[in-house]
């Protein structure tokens, strides 16, 4: 009897162990099924921010917000010469596909198990945002087959097709975010490091992205201006409704670069400020608003670094004139010698964008004050109410609704300054000064877009606007100061003539990354036989074609 009981007990134990092994996963061993939705969302947001803001940095070089130290053949130097090649644009591609996009479906699968609809909505927005952004800079990319495990060489889809897909995905996301979650679902706040669990902000983000994407088609015959305005009206209306990523400042000693601001990482010590960016901030361009009550833009010392001379006097950086010929050989990188309180060369007047020293003492020489966007603990203005106000202003001015356009133009400036925590009284004084257009009759598309250019510093959207509105050119593509929108935006002196042989050639898209050239060339050339040509990067994307 004891033997029978023992055998039954042993049989029960072994059966129970087998059942446990079959059903449960070891939470200490990573696999595709262990992480929950709230565990998956934070890294998904963080990796998306890297892909998105790294795209923005590269666009800032193409858009002449950023210059770089001279480095013949260097990645960023090539970008300032308008050459995006197979290597200098591949990180956003890799970060998006390898680190981000492939993790969207697993998050949705995990969320579906517990009816965590708000997580599903957030994941769909990230997918739409990433593909919408990257298809606009690359022109074409794998979408339908990108995460099909049976497909080693996915086909490339054109940007117009991808836009249709992501607009529908945004509508799905809005519906998901409006649902009541299941009883076992975690609150969105548990995993949301961007919008702190606010479904309202995620919904507003989705509508804002719709407004942005729809506005890209402003040059096409079927452009629907009212659809853009309708979407914008449901997007962020205030600073608190904007989607802003707060990075972490860890103090004088950095222990994890994963927490620092992307623009701090990406601009490093080699990026410099351009004369065009400085001119826009100082109202030094053709047709800029001027008058008896001119006032300096209160953002300038937050966006432009300064340095201290040996006598303790602060000086703003000199700006790199991209058209002067300087960029053919300079500016040179420099170092600081604390022993004799000197810089290694005269190009220290072109000040680095990182605050140096990080925590100066009373006796330290300030080598750079840094900038608002390039601090270690900076904010990433991923999508803001400021952008929507400028979208509205652009549409109104094109509709000859100058009064409405002026209101939206001023609201855009105010919104950006509020995001930068400029005091309200200072904002009011600037907006009432002659440095800002005060009469509807005097407002132009240039005034609006130049202010948007400032408010969207380091955003990939700036390059979309420049391409969409054709830089500072006339209808034939020639530089024209009188009729062009972005006054003073000229071809750089070191522009590469192999890629841009004609004066009417302007940068229009990123090159195809080396991963695809090396391992998926058949699909690349099937999608566009000219993808291997040097002039491919001056070919307009779908919404930019005439």
Question: How would you describe this structure to a colleague?
Answer:
The protein has a two-stranded antiparallel sheet. Strand 8 (336-337) and strand 9 form a beta hairpin. It is mainly α. The chain is 42% helix and 5% strand.
Q: Which regions are unreliable across 5 or more consecutive residues at pLDDT < 50?
A: 1-22
**Largest β-sheet summary:** 2 strands, antiparallel
Mean pLDDT metric: 94
Q: Provide the gyration radius in Å.
A: 26 Å
List the helices and strands and how they pair.
Layout: H1 2-23, H2 37-62, E1 66-68, H3 75-80, H4 90-100, H5 104-113, H6 117-138, E2 140-141, E3 157-158, H7 159-177, H8 199-215, H9 225-233, E4 243-246, H10 262-267, E5 271-273, H11 275-281, H12 300-303, E6 306-308, E7 314-316, E8 336-337, E9 342-343, E10 379-383, H13 385-398, H14 402-419, H15 424-431, H16 445-455, H17 460-468, H18 514-519, H19 521-527
Antiparallel strand pairs: 1-5, 2-3, 4-10, 6-7, 8-9
Helix pairs in contact: 2-4, 2-5, 2-6, 2-17, 5-6, 6-7, 6-8, 7-8, 8-9, 9-13, 13-14, 13-16, 14-15, 14-16
Concise synopsis of the structure shown:
The chain is mainly alpha-helical and 546 residues long. The chain has helices spanning 2-23, 37-62, 75-80, 90-100, 104-113, 117-138, 159-177, 199-215, 225-233, 262-267, 275-281, 300-303, 385-398, 402-419, 424-431, 445-455, 460-468, 514-519, 521-527, and strands at residues 66-68, 140-141, 157-158, 243-246, 271-273, 306-308, 314-316, 336-337, 342-343, 379-383. The protein has a two-stranded antiparallel sheet. It has a two-stranded antiparallel ribbon with strand order 2-3. Strands 4-10 form a two-stranded antiparallel sheet.
